[in-house]
Amino acid sequence: MKETLSKLLVLILLIGVTTGCASWRDRDTESAPTDRGAGTTTRTDDAALTAKVKAKLLSDDVLNGMNIDVDTQNGVVFLNGVVDSQDQKQKAIELAQNTEGVREVEDNLKVGRIEGSSNESGSTLSVNLLEDLG
């Protein structure tokens, strides 16, 4: 219950920050063309796509969306991070691909485990990759 409530709080915060930042940037990027020359995709669109994909990942019961970083550039979603299994990796890719507005998904996910450990100078994070299938 606490984990679900925590995910929901993070999701609401993420959407609020993204929406706030997007509206602030709208003045500068409303019709700014992209490097690809299409002229229709803006940073605001990318921020909204990032928020949509991250929300899907966080709300999925199978995935630990907190371990997946989502970035978007010109409609291309980049997934980075570590998942527990190949099934979770595939699920994350499918969720991103099935998000309206996503043109392409760039998969940089690794299969493994994240283990938290701490030392005298602070906490560190280690990643044990089970296998590199990507």
UniProtKB/TrEMBL annotation:
Cellular localization per UniProt: Periplasm
Keywords for the protein's UniProt record, in alphabetical order: Periplasm, Repeat, Signal
Annotated ranges, domain BON: 45-113
Entries under Pfam families matching the protein: BON
Biased composition (Low complexity): 34-44
UniProt main location, coarse: periplasm
Bias kind Polar residues: ranges: 116-127
Entry superkingdom: Bacteria
Family annotation (PROSITE patterns): BON (PS50914), PROKAR_LIPOPROTEIN (PS51257)
GO cellular component: periplasmic space
Region (Disordered): 25-44, 114-134
PANTHER family found in the cross-reference section: BON DOMAIN-CONTAINING PROTEIN
Name this protein carries in UniProt: Osmotically-inducible protein Y
